[in-house]
User: Fold this.
Amino acid sequence: MTVQFSRQGMAAMPLAVPLAQSSFVRRLLQARDDAVKRRVLAWLMEIDDARLRGFGLSAEDITILRALREDGNGQFATHVGHE
Assistant:
């Protein structure tokens, strides 16, 4: 199966949105939304920044995690720069 993407109409990513440096955070954000992802995100939200840095997360990774908000449907969405 081949997937092709058109380059027309693609907008550049805004510079204000930080990119995750940790592959863990990138993969977590890209994962489909399910109960496991919601539990992991809820667990990470309860951990203070110093401990997250101790896990190897960068300041940008922590900012991205802190910017996640659960919507009314139990799904998480990134709200970086929209507060």
